[in-house]
């Protein structure tokens, strides 16, 4: 944990006012100023000993302080807003050399080159890019399940529910299949809008994704994406009909994967989608 002592730092509200930070809606800026809450998020990440943590969007640095107070090896904080970065310089100095600030768009940052393994992601995500970021990290995990030790992320509750939804659930969809194929997904706790400054319009939820040592079943990630896109693209229809957009022999695909063509997308399990992706690979070979 090093010599970092968060008590030597000014309160977050003071950091915000002395740097004239005004929450920018375009950057999804809803800050957490209650350090008990940010400590709780850091704890939800589990044991961070020897782990390098990537935080997306540190803002004024509340969660960053909590992460620095854990046993994490180091924290790399990726922030797009220059004003927030300026405000974080004092924290960087206080925590040296365990905090590194990276200026830029998290969408352009390759997690595996910005920090050495073992690595984890912990973030109160900017909601406008949250699912795109997660999809990118899941693609990394599809190539190498050990590339990320864990992801502890704050999403809008509605996205969190989709991530954790089981088959048959109204919000079960492509993201549920992909996330659960690669990770064990747990919703940890809800955070009410009033806990943020300024408050967003929705409730938020902290989600923990623990990557599986191997995906739930074998499948090519691109083909899995294609079958889930086709099936959930028309989720009210029977898969016999929705899978026609793949422009392949659907009857043969269903036969060889053992899936009932009358089923709808939302009742098929992750294993069923993997079977479809494998059958699609066989048919395209
Ligand atoms: N972690 C802080 C907290 O909990 O108070 C701030 C969280 S706020 C929801 C999201 C943060 O992500 C903001 O600081 C915002 O500037 C930053 N951000 C938004 N889009 C970003 C992007 N594409 N890349 C990096 N940071 C981004």
CATH fold topology of the largest domain? Rossmann fold
Total of helices = 12
Annotated CATH homologous superfamily of the largest domain: Vaccinia Virus protein VP39
Rg result: 21 Å
CATH class of the largest domain: Alpha Beta
Number of individual domains: 2
Taking the alpha carbons of the first and last residues, their distance comes to 53 Å
Envelope shape? elongated
Summarize model confidence as the mean pLDDT.
96
Give the bound compounds: S-adenosylmethionine
How do the helices and strands line up, and which of them pair or pack?
Elements: H1 12-18, E1 31-32, H2 35-44, E2 52-56, H3 62-68, E3 74-79, H4 82-95, E4 99-103, H5 111-114, E5 119-124, H6 130-143, E6 150-156, H7 157-164, H8 174-182, E7 183-191, E8 196-197, E9 204-211, H9 221-233, H10 239-242, H11 250-257, H12 270-284
Helix pairs in contact: 2-3, 6-8, 9-12, 11-12
The site of S-adenosylmethionine has 23 residues, from strand 1, helix 3 and strand 3.
Structural notes for this entry:
There is one protein chain. This protein has two domains: 6-211, 3-Layer(aba) Sandwich (Rossmann fold), CATH 3.40.50; 221-284, Helicase, Ruva Protein, domain 3 (Orthogonal Bundle), CATH 1.10.8. It has twelve helices and nine strands. The protein has helices at 12-18, 35-44, 62-68, 82-95, 111-114, 130-143, 157-164, 174-182, 221-233, 239-242, 250-257, 270-284; strands at residues 31-32, 52-56, 74-79, 99-103, 119-124, 150-156, 183-191, 196-197, 204-211. Helix 4 (82-95) links the parallel strand 3 (74-79) and strand 4. Helix 2 (35-44) crosses helix 3 and helix 9 (221-233) crosses helix 12 (270-284). The radius of gyration is 21 Å and the shape is elongated. The chain binds S-adenosylmethionine (SAM).
